[in-house]
Design a protein that fits this description.
It is a single chain. By secondary structure, the protein is α/β, with parallel strands linked by helices. It has two domains: about 1-115 and about 250-260, NAD(P)-binding Rossmann-like Domain (Rossmann fold, 3-Layer(aba) Sandwich); about 120-245 and about 275-285, Dihydrodipicolinate Reductase, domain 2. The protein is about 30% helix and about 30% strand. The protein has eight helices and 13 strands. The protein has helices at about 15-20, 50-60, 75-80, 95-110, 120-130, 150-165, 245-250, 265-285; strands at about 1-10, 25-35, 60-65, 85, 110-115, 135-145, 170-180, 185-190, 195-205, 210-215, 220-225, 230, 235. Strands 7-8-9-6-10-11-12-13 form an eight-stranded mixed β-sheet, covered by helices on one side. It has a five-stranded parallel β-sheet with strand order 2-1-3-4-5, with helices on one face. Strand 12 (about 230) and strand 13 form a beta hairpin. Helix 3 packs parallel to helix 4 and helix 6 packs across helix 8 (about 265-285).
Length: about 290
Amino acid sequence: MIKVGLIGNLSSIVQQIGQLKNVKDVRVIGKSSVGMMEELHGKYLTIPEFNRKELIEASDFLMVEKSRLLLPDLLKLSIRNNKHLYITDFPDLQPEQCAELIKLADEAKTMVHIADQSLSESFQHWVEVNWKEPAYISIFEAQPELPEKIPYLTRYIFLALSLYKAMPQKIRVSGIHQPETGFYFINIRLDFPSFSAFNLELLIQPHESHNIRLVLPGQFLTGDFTSHKAYLDAKEISLPAPRQHTVAELLTHYETEDFHAYSNLSVYHSTLLTLREVLRKIELFTPWK
């Protein structure tokens, strides 16, 4: 029996919790929650409340919605004691701290998976199914005001490194700012060894938009995240159904020899190193302070 513990504001992961009921030999034993649960979700959350450390010690697998609740000591304790983790946000770590966690995870064979929620689920599924390199991805996003820098950049850098599975060999950053109108434009491009590139464009304007262009060998996809419309080689296509079973599917591999291989903590470490360099170049070459 796999004993699952839940940590964080569970209303955001209630769907995943419900799906665990369909996985054989899995039991949600307790929660250490933050905030109030909506009544709609109550049927999934009649689960005992635990002291956080006691929940970690009693569980085999932890679903974590707010990693800051574990930083730094409880996260180390979990990994050292072979408590596998599925984390739905980006832990606030320095690269050196993450490297220490990787060492602990390798020694204990602990699986630490950080969920990638950068693209809508339907687009993410299409990209995963059709992925080939070399590949060019360009994401354009218009927002009414500048987002918080570190969470915004971490999300997209993690996406890029998860797909390309390599560190960028070149990082280019540029920006345009017109103070009297509040106009901002930021461009970040990561070039990879496979002759691939990831391009991110951020425009500050009143009208929001969010779209993607993706070039793979023999395929050209454009898509709009707002309308959920996608065009492959200029013809509209239906995107695949979103994957709804991430944690449940992961746990079907729990007792296999390669379960530890589902960990992506090393990708997150590379993300943090890349983020550090991107932030340095933003400070030097753009008005985004």
